[in-house]
Specification:
mainly alpha
Length: 67
């Protein structure tokens, strides 16, 4: 991975959770490119990845009830 992408991710991570969430949710071209060059691939195994998804679904359902 290019050092420039690693530096960009380091900058985002140093800004905190909100900055990371912004990059992960943004449709801006730079955010899309950054996600495509993520250093996080393979960090979680399948069991952990599924647990994260389930946790998010529970959180989303609790915070955003259907109207």
């Amino acid at each position: 991975m290019s050092q420039s992408w690693l530096r960009e991710w380091e900058r985002v991570l140093d800004q905190g959770v909100d900055a990371v969430a912004d990059v992960l949710a943004s449709r801006a071209p730079r955010a899309v490119e950054l996600r495509a060059n993520s250093p996080f691939a393979g960090v979680l195994d399948e069991r952990e990845r599924l647990a994260v998804h389930q946790s998010f679904r529970r959180h989303w359902a609790a915070e955003h009830p259907a109207a």
